[in-house]
Records
---
Amino acid sequence: MNETNSSEPRLALLIDADNISAKYLSIILNEIPRYGVATYRRIYGDFTDPQAAKWRTKLLDNSILPVQQFSNVKSHKKGEKAGKNATDSTLIIDAMDILYAGQVDGFIIVSSDSDFTRLAQRLRESSMIVVGMGRNQTAISFRHACTKFVNIEYLYNFEQNRSDDDLDEYEETENGADSIETTLTLEDVEAVVGGIIHSNDNKGRSTELSQIGVSLNNKFPDFDVRNFGYSQLSKFIDDFDRFELVATDVGYDVKIADTQGSVRQIEEFMISELGKRKNKSMSISSLASKVHDEFPSFNIKDTGYSQFYKFVNSIERIHVTGTTRKTAKLV
């Protein structure tokens, strides 16, 4: 009889010991229940290497099976450990064997190595959940190949209240902190959330907070509110001035904050600016610049228009003329 809960995805945890420090193990194990149950727990590397000594003391206590790969061939690449490619190959072969056995619903690949990008893509092609876990330096290609990517270095430093510079010698690489690749900014999040809300509004539907979370994760596999200093998605979204949370019987809906007052203020501001001109007119680009200087949080999509000149032309006292170079004129 299967001892795992059938409602939880069964996962294969595969760790690249040549690439990940043992100090991250607690972070890795604490993350697993977010995605399912690890029915396979394997770690790959040369455990005769002194650098792997810290792993040896942790494997038995945490029921992780070590897969020994001796460093029989010396690597000639700068900064690369001997036997690295052999370790990677063994992990990939095991992953495919596990896939074909049909006993799991997904994989957790713990490595910062971009060499596993194609493996992640292949597993997703087979409808597998693929959770990647790695450090700051993990390439965008591997992050985006996963269903979800977790930055374990950030979580470790966050929990230990340590700076990114407080890393031991094991973590130093040729491509250090200066080459950290990121795929997501607050502006990216705001644009995606705003787009979802506008799309639902056009269809007469409300936008649930859970839908926001799913959409952000689908678009950005490495999206995690903890990377922005939050523990809850609701708190994260609520801190955007542009959005507003509305409590429902089952959770929260998200909507664009009431902007009618500010839109009227913007209309009055534009009329006033045009009125100051001798010819009562101004180029659309100049008018847009003045509006954004006066109202930094203004977003044209919140007016119901996708282009600024169309919004201006909708104002009763302003008329837009021109084709390639548009001008707003007070009438």
---
Amino acid sequence: MDRELYDQIVKERPNLWWWVQNKENLSLESVVQGVLANGDMDDVQRVFQLVGRKQVKEIFLQQISRPRHNYRPQTVNFFKKVFTQDD
């Protein structure tokens, strides 16, 4: 994971990944999932700035295309609407 991403998101908001022992080893996909599933809108804006909205969208759509994922139905619905605006 990018050091800036760790310092500005994961280190600032470790409670988004409360179950993870070593948060420095989170993948980019795990960071995106943690922010979209558990963060607030400030966290979402920050991850958009650091990772890029397009890449966050791609990661999210890939994650929800799997038979099982860790997003609540309301979260999936909300971010589908958010990312539809990009098209």
---
Amino acid sequence: MQITEIVKIGKGLRYKLMVDDNFEGVFEAEVLARHNLKTDQEIDEDFLNNLKVENGDYASFDRGLTLLEHGMKSQKQVEDYLKGKGYPPECIERAINKLIDYGYINDEAYACEYVRLYSRKDGKRKIAFALKNKGVADELIEQAFDQCLNEDTQLDTCVNLARKKVKNIELDAKGKQKIYAFLAGRGFDFETIKHAVNIIESER
């Protein structure tokens, strides 16, 4: 088997590899450089197969790390992203394990940070639903609520949302029903909503 062509793709560091005039995939410059591969070089099938695995491992880890540089993500989010890129499952698994070992993926820390951020916008139920969709385990969600949720912040958020909602609404039975439904839709529990509405009533 002979490498017949190595062609750079765009402005990045990825190359199209042709062996015996057959397309064998897109390879990272780093992986090709490790083996000092060149056009007309003779290789065997075992070497090519190992090269593909090495390339998949490198690319999966590198793409996952690049994604995480833009902000924390859950393990499932990174997995889904890499699957969307078409990397082999075994390469994705090794990349994920490596990212976890290095501390780049940490669902416990992610859940806590997510709770701190979104508790200023939404209620616990909505936050929990979002975290579940991101693949965070139920026990980690509960732990994040216990350790990272400020109940006063939740009440303040609920009150502020209620204030905006009641600007053009009478606080009669029908008006209260609308406010309760609105705040419940934002994920707040009944007691927090009740407390918030009482505060709003006292301000009028």
